[in-house]
């Protein structure tokens, strides 16, 4: 799980890169769940919440500029 204070210190480009990385991880986790290979089931909700945090911060940064 990513700390919000760490995310706030990053630039919009860095946040976009992190968002892309998390979306890829989310896809891989969904694929693992579908094939029955998932080991860390709690990671699905963590990734989803991190995506929401980063999306919110990106929206805030765009509105501020």
UniProtKB/TrEMBL annotation:
<dbReference type="InterPro" id="IPR036049">
    <property type="entry name" value="Ribosomal_uL29_sf"/>
</dbReference>
<dbReference type="InterPro" id="IPR001854">
    <property type="entry name" value="Ribosomal_uL29"/>
</dbReference>
<comment type="similarity">
    <text>Belongs to the universal ribosomal protein uL29 family.</text>
</comment>
<dbReference type="Pfam" id="PF00831">
    <property type="entry name" value="Ribosomal_L29"/>
</dbReference>
<keyword id="KW-0689">Ribosomal protein</keyword>
<protein>
    <recommendedName>
        <fullName>Large ribosomal subunit protein uL29</fullName>
    </recommendedName>
</protein>
<keyword id="KW-0687">Ribonucleoprotein</keyword>
<dbReference type="InterPro" id="IPR050063">
    <property type="entry name" value="Ribosomal_protein_uL29"/>
</dbReference>
<dbReference type="InterPro" id="IPR018254">
    <property type="entry name" value="Ribosomal_uL29_CS"/>
</dbReference>
<dbReference type="GO" id="GO:0005840">
    <property type="term" value="C:ribosome"/>
</dbReference>
């Amino acid at each position: 799980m990513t700390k919000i204070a760490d995310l706030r210190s990053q630039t919009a480009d860095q946040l976009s890169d992190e968002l892309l990385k998390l979306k890829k991880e989310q896809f891989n986790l969904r694929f693992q769940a579908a094939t029955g290979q998932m080991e860390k089931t709690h990671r699905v909700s963590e990734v989803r919440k991190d995506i929401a945090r980063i999306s919110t911060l990106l929206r805030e940064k765009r509105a501020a500029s």
